[in-house]
Amino acid sequence: MLRYLSIRMARSLTVVLCLSAIVFALAHLIPGDPATLIAGESSTPQLRAQITRQLGLDQPVWSQYLSWIGHAVRGDLGSSLLDGQSVAAQVADRLPVSLELAVFAAVFAVAWGIPAGIWSAMHQGRANDRMVNSAAFLGLAVPPFVVGTVMVLLVSTLTPSWPLFSFVPFSENPLLNLQVLLLPAVALGIPFGATICRYMRAAILDVEGQDFMRTAAAKGAGRRRLMMRHALRNSLVPVVTAGGLQLGVLVGGTVIIEQVFALPGLGSLIVASITQHDFPEIQGAILALGASYVVINLLTDLVYPLIDPRIRTTGARRDG
Amino acid sequence: MTAESMAPAATAAAARRRRLRLGWNPTLTTGVCVLGGLVTMALLVGGFGSYSPQDVSDSLLTGPSADHWMGTDNLGRDLFTRTFAAARQSLLVAFGATTLAALIGVPIGLIAGYNARRLDAVLMAAMDTAMSIPSVLLALVLVSVFTPGTGVLITGMGLIFVPYFARIVRAPALTVRERDFVSAARIAGVRTPVVIGRHVLPNVMSSALVQYANTAATCVLVEASLSYLGLGIQPPTPSWGRMIFEGQRYMKEDPLLVIVPGVTLAVATAAFGLISDGLQERLNPRGKRRTA
């Protein structure tokens, strides 16, 4: 168990370090001199030299990276080029919105994906199965931002009183907060749930053919007990693996969905800072979103030993 | 059951088996036909249509008419023409990026799988790390540095999806490596690149093909998403994502502005999805499916 945990932790740390290196390299890939970018074209050479020294741009690249990552670890992500505000404060302000959206969407996805997958597997080859399959297929084909846009159109025509584009924090008004996030979460949860549904169906069909299922049936276990106690638990491992891989798509989806519904999350911060070329803010926001994705992934890794006791002893993950 | 009633059942089963093996595969056929239709439309409308996608006119937001089959947008541009001109961009990015990813990823996967041991471990660790970062985030990093456009999207997304091909190809390469015909070739003194090219590559092609369809679908979605955010294909070149974004403001007057590009976009991803599912059905008739 300890071995399993340490492998997973080391892996996550590597990923965050790589992402930080990519994000750091970003500032060095921009054509032009950052000091000129900050001080403006008409600034004096002295001012630019001073900024260069202040930012440590005269240091070798690796020592710049170390100092940047050192500050980042201590929660200092620099300040915005535009308004001088602390990037870390901005990120801390917006991260909860994105996380809440992602969690809400994931809950919705699991809530419809897993039962739909099981139901579809239980009716394999029949009309019900085909219906669920087609729905899941459609859910995967239509991108969330199209679903979101159509939702906005429908809701604004049918029920004009529904709160759109007006975010309220959970701490202020929990009910209104959930109401505002419902549509974005559904739009985001449709394709994610569709993936879960398809994997769930395939995994159940896979397990159904195995010996222990026949044994359980022979011992007189009913259809429901067979499904819930024997098939479900054994088919969850590949579903969690697939779901974990798809979480990245979910995190990427929040960036776009936040834009559709004008939610003040990290995604809209990233998009705004990219259009304004505010590099410290792009770096900080992308690093924060990527790091939170890695943490979420680590948490799903912790789910495996709970589902499959074999992982607890060997430390190996049985995928697929 | 009598002998007479069993005979047709047996032939039907045999016919079904033959169909599975030999080709008639409705999922795959539908996917290929839809995609083919889309490509044809993209080429015809983009090339020989009676309007150019940038032509503005005085008839704004007209709705469907004989002149403008799907109406016009807020600048009086023909929606039908623009939708399929956008298809051109989208498919160009999808095929371009996916082909690039396959051209780099498949060799990496082959080398990793065939050599096994240390090189495999190093390459796969690198690929896993790259795959652990959400692709949309990587794409955002990219467009924040380079001016977005078709070329940047193709190269960038091509590189981002390299690990997916390497991963998918490595597994079958690893098993083929242990097969007798590969050992025989090696013992006969065939050089390693030739062994990989002639004996291993054909055995991983089917996995790579499924991945190709999946990645192309993802590319269509990522391109549309980035263009929606204004970070993908730049106006005035039409793209589905940007058309949806621009149509949003006028969608109460004319919902077609959002629905037409949205549906076409969905049809494109669905076509790739059908191709992927169809290929998998043929490769693995037990009905196991994979997505992403």
**In percent, how much strand structure appears in the residues of chain B?**
under 5%
What percentage of amino acids of chain A are in beta strands?
A: under 5%
Number of strands of chain B: 0
Q: What oligomeric state is this?
A: heterodimer
Major sheet of chain B, described briefly?
A: none
Write down the overall mean pLDDT of chain B: 82
- Give the helix/strand class of chain A: mainly alpha
What is Rg of chain B? 23 Å
* Largest interface, Cβ cutoff 8 Å: A-B, 55 and 48 residues
- Helicity range of the residues of chain B? over 70%
Total helix count of chain A? 13
Shape of chain A: globular
Total helix count of chain B?
11
Question: Helices and strands of chain B: which structural class?
Answer: mainly alpha
Low-pLDDT runs of 5+ residues of chain A are none
- Helix share, percent of chain A: over 70%
Q: What radius of gyration of chain A results from the CA coordinates?
A: 24 Å
What can be said about the biggest beta sheet of chain A?
none
Secondary-structure element order of chain A, as H and E? Answer: HHHHHHHHHHHHH
- Are there runs of chain B of 5+ residues with pLDDT below 50, and where? 1-6, 286-292
Distance between the termini of chain A: 20 Å
